[in-house]
């Protein structure tokens, strides 16, 4: 079963879905799924579309409480993307679902994985992070700053164009997430790094770089033949479920 609610984050209103199962004990574990940043024309409203279904499946199979929210500018959530705003959004979701009796983990896709690492680096309540198709190096991932901003406008992750940060401010705000620095602060907490061997958007070498930055203290899973879109790949789902099961 999955519940739907709205959550205020600054001036944004986020859609939040929380999945649980009546047939298995939820226990003391909570997982938050974090979507990536769409840069394909028109994809801003669809970027997180598969995550509620994934949340229900994970909750049913694991017994964990699984939450997923659409961050500012994505789906039917209001507001406009910035890395700072998305950090605030994820922090707001964490405050909503976490309590002192739960062990909290995050699982992020693409830039959502980098965001999860960044939050975990400064929040000891987060006991584990799983990343999938996550860039280790954001400068090459963003590409040209002007083209990056134009891609976000085309994707539609904005309320009004005037709300999107100027070119250099937007670019530097994203680079400040610093996934390599963030992942280094995660051990001895749990870390899973999943990546497709045929990912043309983020090379699989980025996954190895993240693991190296964590001093090798994590699990690396390269999914053979998989591309960048891992959310619906059954091998990714099985990998994540196994990771959850090992950390009851």
Give an overview in words.
The protein is of the alpha/beta class and 248 residues long. It has one domain (2-245): 3-Layer(aba) Sandwich (Rossmann fold), CATH 3.40.50.1820. Helix content is 36%, strand content 22%. The protein has 9 helices and 8 strands. It has helices spanning 51-62, 83-97, 111-121, 138-142, 145-155, 167-175, 179-184, 205-213, 234-245; strands at 2-9, 12-19, 29-34, 65-70, 103-109, 126-132, 190-196, 219-223. Strands 1-2-4-3-5-6-7-8 form an 8-stranded mixed sheet, with helices on both faces. α1 (51-62) packs across α9. It is globular. The two termini are 21 Å apart.
SSE topology:
Blueprint: E1 2-9, E2 12-19, E3 29-34, H1 51-62, E4 65-70, H2 83-97, E5 103-109, H3 111-121, E6 126-132, H4 138-142, H5 145-155, H6 167-175, H7 179-184, E7 190-196, H8 205-213, E8 219-223, H9 234-245
Parallel strand pairs: 3-4, 3-5, 5-6, 6-7, 7-8
Antiparallel strand pairs: 1-2, 2-4
Helix pairs in contact: 1-9, 2-3, 5-6
In short:
Helix content is 36%, strand content 22%.
Features of the shown structure:
248 residues, alpha/beta, Rossmann fold, eight-stranded mixed sheet, 9 helices, 8 strands, 36% helix
Q: Strand content of the residues, in percent?
A: 15-25%
- At CATH level 2, the architecture is 3-Layer(aba) Sandwich
| CATH top level assignment | Alpha Beta
User: In percent, how helical is the residue content?
Assistant: 25-40%
Shape: globular
Name the structural class.
alpha/beta
The count of strands amounts to 8
CATH superfamily: Alpha/Beta hydrolase fold, catalytic domain
What is the residue-mean pLDDT, rounded to a whole number? 91
Radius of gyration: 17 Å
Number of H- or I-type helical stretches: 9
Quaternary state, please?
A: single chain
